[in-house]
Amino acid sequence: MANSIGHVAGVNGNLVTVNFEGAILKNEVAYVLVGDTKLKGEVIRINGSKASMQVYEMTNGIQVGDKVEFTGELMSVELGPGLLTQIYDGLQNPLPSLAENCGFFLQRGVYLDPIPNKDWEFTPVAKVGDTLRPGDTFGTVPEGIFEHRIMLPFGFDETDWKIVSIAEKGTYNVRDTVATVVSPKGEEKKLTMVFSWPVKKAVKCYDQRLRPDETLVTKIRIIDTFLPVAKGGTFCTPGPFGAGKTVLQHMESRNSDVDIVIIAACGERAGEVVEILKEFPELLDPKTGRSLMERTIIICNTSSMPVAAREASVYTAITMAEYYRQMGLNVLLLADSTSRWAQAMREMSGRLEEIPGEEAFPAYLESLIAAFYERAGKVRLRDGKIGSVTIGGTVSPAGGNFDEPVTQATLKVVGAFHGLSRERSDARKYPAIHPLDSWSKYKGIIDSERVEAAREVLFKSNEVNQMMKVIGEEGTTVDDYIEYQKGELLDAVYLQQNSFDPVDAAVVPERQQEEFNLLYRILMAKFNIETKKDVRAFFNQLRQKFLDWNSVLATDERYEKYKSEITELFLSKVSEEV
Amino acid sequence: MNKVYTKIESIVGNVITVRAEGVRYNDLAMVGKSYANVIKLDGDLVSLQVFAGAQGVSTNDTVRFLGVPMRVSFSENLMGRVFDGSGKPRDNGPELNENLIEIGGPSVNPAKRIVPKNLIRTGIPMIDVFNTLVESQKLPIFSVSGEPYNELLARIAMQAEVDLIILGGMGLKYDDYLFFRDTLEKSGAMSRTIMFIHTASDPTVECTMIPDMSLAVGERFALEGRKVLVLLTDMTNYADAMKETAITMEQVPANRGYPGDLYSSLASRYEKAVDFEGAGSLTILAVTTMPGDDVTHPVPDNTGYITEGQYYLKNGHIEPFGSLSRLKQNVNKDTRNDHRALMDGLIKLYSAYKESLEKKSMGFNMTEWDDKLLKYGQLFESELMDLKVNIPLEEALDLGWKILAECFEPNETGLRSELIAQRWPKKLEA
């Protein structure tokens, strides 16, 4: 398609109307020319010869009649080796290089190459005459600890492409031609290590989508045991401000047992991204012993950056996640926060004068949220390897009220709900995930019947607690009081976790199982204690010992000692064990 | 391109439309004697919001486009001066037109930000000790009408250890404006202060300019190496002014009539808070009054999601519970070795005091421990929490120990033994 041109007809915030000639695509990228600067935008509505564009930059200074160039391409990201360790804005502009070019401020209209111009050690894995389909590998390069696959671009026609020539093992620039392929129709294409893919389209170059049935270990007890997440699954974390959403996501991004973590900081504080930027290069991934940054990509469109690019940023992130899944890797995408993305859609919808839905969010909010989370999944690739994309999104509900549209639309499509509660965060009970309101449909690291029984104890404990508020401690029976204390114990030593303690911050599944088994015996046992005072003293002692146990390394000699002390103390009062 | 147009097509609220060509989005114009800026272009139909309000604008008034966006003068001459929402002097001083800078500039590249590390001393123990203010932090003061938030701001303006104070007043009562001016003049802090003041009787549109002007000037001073503190009061008025314009423009309202971009608008202003590596810094303290004392109201709610903590000002003092400085961890480890532990210890005991107080009010028997707590709570409130208290951080920490020693035995405080050995006041121990 020949590239069309047009002229600005109107400006309203970041919505620009354009009179165009020729043919244009919906969602194609176009540039508004203001003086010497080109401002990137996307066509979101076409009406006769008028197109509405959302511009990803500040629109100051645009005037009616300014020239607009259409590119004929959908909003895309570049995929290739070198993505890892990068920090991009929502449009895949590398922020550190931008800083080198433009200094402190984000200058508008500057677009840099997202994939660093670098040489890579290319090893061919296919030979001349082999046929490839989109997503099939023809070579590899080592990217940090990973074997980065060089694949036939996903956007090629779904047919058998035959390799005409392929480079020998050696060092090539990322944009050098490394292979030539030809289609059955005789169309010839040169391949480099980089290709682009439209962000709003899911990558489907795999054999089969599988059920997410393997637990994704986060090393956070309340999640792994009670509210598990699965590889290829989805989960959401709604919570009022100050409840610790971001801290929880940072814990997940540090400790999760996955190959690659992509953090999409969408419309949140820049300061939080800075913490990751400064912290991650110094932290080591326990699995590989390398810096955490080597497995991380950060997409950062903070709250003060242009709103329209905020919407693009979550799609940019998910596309990169799908790209790495295509290499048989497990990818975790953490989006903070999806509410800001929804608000960006609301702003745009308002400017387009669409009929508003609930709380002025557009009517298509739900389907877009659903489509986004549906891009998660565990897949079997054509070569038999398994890869997965797991999506965890935070939600920032207005007023901390979960009945609002974004939370509700998200809850409909996710597999686990980690609801943060103001009550728990005010009481400094971290992570502030509410153990009774939250749920998960995935399999955890502990047998679900026993987990259910432990949850029952929490329910019962909560009931007794409510009752005690009315009738006082005096009116409560000793048995009820024991139930109450059991729940409190479980909460204090297992559900809560001290993220500042070097040992307690990340607990491996084996240790979780060991501790849970011991706790389970206590929760299920009957005790022979006469007075409530003694009950309180007994449980206080237990709690103290558990907390001591939590803070020593498993290799420490005190580990077994504390454990046997707990067992002894427990056995001294028990009357009947189930 | 100073073409003059004389036919105004429509006047709705503070927004007028004219037919004009070659006009750029966000450019400034003169309508009669007032400034106006372009907020919408639709073909040759240009919508402008008139700063002084459209009241009295005639359909044959002249509209002259200036071909530049809204700007503000930036120089040392700003020091000690007072301006209104369109940048005109409020203080009989000369108008400043040199070195104009654009307002509402681009955001700072996150890759260029650094982790904040310097505290700002204010001499107010509830801030310095318990919720330390950190350079480049953005913090709102959540309060309700009638609370002394402006007095608090004025005190911070007088005492904060910064190079430059910029006060942005939005919808201020005239009395409050005079109070700020007189207090700062009396204390001598006026010479390092710049004020951008919009009073309640001024046109609404000017209110929406105050934060941008204050922050644009502040940012430039910060780039030149100054430690700038921007005080804004009251951001709820600012949000209400935005709401007014949005409704006039027939925008679809989101929550309680506020425009859908409330979060983005607030965020792009608060995010101006920054510590420039190798230069100065900009810190923001902004009063946000909560209509009906409701923290879930859209303005405080959105603010809470943006800022790095909050101070609750209730019943004349900064609440120890609920108030939070998210960045205090970055600085309070380097102040004095007892800072963190003492801060936690004092708060835990104060929380126990509140429980005892509740028990007392319900008529339960008071134990010896309860009596100690009650004594402690009262001392804590009068000697540390009271906003009149004005002592440096170190003195406040010593005072904390003194209060503890007056009320408790060392082992009742829950503080570590080695700290007690080091800090427990000697003469009271004997």
Please supply descriptive tags for the structure shown above.
heterodimer, A: 578 residues, OB fold (Dihydrolipoamide Acetyltransferase, E2P), Rossmann fold, 6-stranded antiparallel barrel, B: 430 residues, alpha/beta, Elongation Factor Tu (Ef-tu), domain 3, 7-stranded antiparallel sheet, 21 strands, elongated
Give a brief rundown of this model:
The complex is a heterodimer of chains A (578) and B (430). Chain A has 578 residues and is α+β, with helices and mostly antiparallel strands.
Tell me what you see in this structure:
Chain A has 578 residues and is of the alpha+beta class. Chain A has 4 domains: 5-74, Thrombin, subunit H, CATH 2.40.10.170; 113-195, OB fold (Dihydrolipoamide Acetyltransferase, E2P), CATH 2.40.50; 208-440, Rossmann fold, CATH 3.40.50.300; 448-576, Bovine Mitochondrial F1-atpase, Atp Synthase Beta Chain, Chain D, domain 3 (Bovine Mitochondrial F1-ATPase, ATP Synthase Beta Chain, Chain D, domain3), CATH 1.10.1140.10. Chain A contains 14 helices and 30 strands. In chain A, strands 8, 18, 21, 22, 23, 24, 25, 26, 27 and 28 form a 10-stranded mixed β-sheet that branches. A 6-stranded antiparallel barrel of chain A has the order 1-2-5-4-3-6. In chain A, α5 (307-325) packs across α6 (338-351), α11 runs parallel beside α13 (532-550) and α13 packs antiparallel against α14 (558-573). Chain B has 430 residues and is of the alpha/beta class. Chain B has helices at 125-130, 149-159, 174-187, 204-207, 210-223, 235-248, 262-270, 298-306, 328-331, 339-361, 368-385, 393-407, 417-423, 426-429, and strands spanning 4-5, 8-12, 15-19, 27-31, 34-42, 45-50, 63-69, 71-73, 82-83, 100-102, 119-120, 133-134, 138-143, 164-172, 193-199, 227-233, 274-275, 281-289, 309-314, 317-318, 324-325. Chain B has 3 domains: 4-69, Elongation Factor Tu (Ef-tu), domain 3, CATH 2.40.30.20; 72-331, Rossmann fold (3-Layer(aba) Sandwich), CATH 3.40.50.12240; 339-429, no CATH class. In chain B, β14 (164-172), α3 (174-187) and β15 (193-199) form a beta-alpha-beta unit. Helix content of chain B is 35%, strand content 23%. Classes of the chains: A alpha+beta (578), B alpha/beta (430).
